[in-house]
Amino acid sequence: AQSVTQPDIHITVSEGASLELRCNYSYGATPYLFWYVQSPGQGLQLLLKYFSGDTLVQGIKGFEAEFKRSQSSFNLRKPSVHWSDAAEYFCAVGLYNQGGKLIFGQGTELSVKP
Amino acid sequence: DVKVTQSSRYLVKRTGEKVFLECVQDMDHENMFWYRQDPGLGLRLIYFSYDVKMKEKGDIPEGYSVSREKKERFSLILESASTNQTSMYLCASSFGVRTEAFFGQGTRLTVV
Fold first, then answer.
1. Which of A74, B37, B57, B94 could form a disulfide with A33 if both were Cys (CB 3.0 to 4.6 A apart)?
2. Is A101–B45 a contact, with Cβ atoms under 8 angstroms apart?
3. Distance from CA of A78 to the nearest CA of B (A)
4. Tens digit of pLDDT for each residue in B37-86?
5. Is B23's Cβ below 8 Å from some Cβ in A?
6. Whether A100 and B98 lie within 8 Å, measured CB to CB
7. Long-range contacts of A46-50 (CB under 8 A, 24+ apart)
8. What is the DSSP string of B61-89?
9. Which residues contact A84 (CB under 8 A, 6 or more apart)?
């Protein structure tokens, strides 16, 4: 069965430090992958997406993610975290052979220390 | 800009009531989704619709049904609300395969 795993439920980093949020997926075909962010009381906003081509993708707010097929991973990174990045982050996989159904991970809550 | 609108931000209902959550999108999207969001569980797919009157069960359809009579509107129905359905409900839409989904603001439902 298809699934998405975000191993870290909660991460705390200091402002200015680098960040990496992990995402692993299980899907028998080539996936298309997303990272979304949810600020408190808000809906989900797309950070970036991977469909094909270059495995390093750039997104909004200075985020990037790298697709590694051999590891079934799509980790999100940011070189220097800002206090406004505190939010919940969700990884998702799109199932192209199931009409575009989207499956999400459990989410990672990011706290930023001053 | 794509707009996905959920009819209520907050809703309080009594156990046993029939509850309707409405979602409307304005971009002629083919796909629409209903998710339930609970702490530590992420977003779990309840139902998915890929065309008018077409629907597919997600991971947790029990206790829910859906209706999509028009392309722009996707309704989630709780046939007989129970306290374990207290949650945040998120609606989303997308053009189809290989496209991102756009989300509404969510409806926080409390069943008492």
1. A74
2. yes
3. 21
4. 998 899 999 999 998 989 999 999 999 999 999 999 999 999 999 999 99
5. no
6. yes
7. A46/B100, A46/B102, A47/A76, A47/A89, A48/A76, A49/B100, A50/A74
8. -TTEEEEEEETTEEEEEESS--GGG-EEE
9. none
Q: How far is B29 from chain A (nearest CA, A)?
A: 12
Tell me how far apart the alpha carbons of residues B47 and B65 are, in angstroms, rounded to a whole number. Answer: 8
How far, in Å, CA of B48 to CA of B91, rounded? 10
Structure tokens that stand for A106 in this block: 């459990």
A61-114 per-position pLDDT tens digit: 999 999 999 999 999 999 999 999 999 999 999 987 788 889 999 999 999 999
pLDDT for A41 equals: 80
Q: Which A-chain residues 20-49 have CB contacts (< 8 A) with chain B?
A: 32, 34, 36, 42-46, 49
- Decide if B61 touches A, using CB distance below 8 A: no
- Looking at chain B, which residue has its C-alpha nearest residue A51? B98
Pairing of the two strands B54-57 and B64-70: unpaired
Measured distance CA(B52)–CA(A20) in Å, rounded: 40
Q: By CB neighbour count within 10 A (0-12 exposed, 13-18 middle, 19+ buried), where does A2 fall?
A: middle
Q: Is B1 on the interface with A (CB under 8 A)?
A: no
Nearest-CB residue to B105 (from A42, A92, A102): A42
**Residue B53 CA to chain centroid, in angstroms?**
15
Are A102 and B50 within 8 A, CB to CB? no
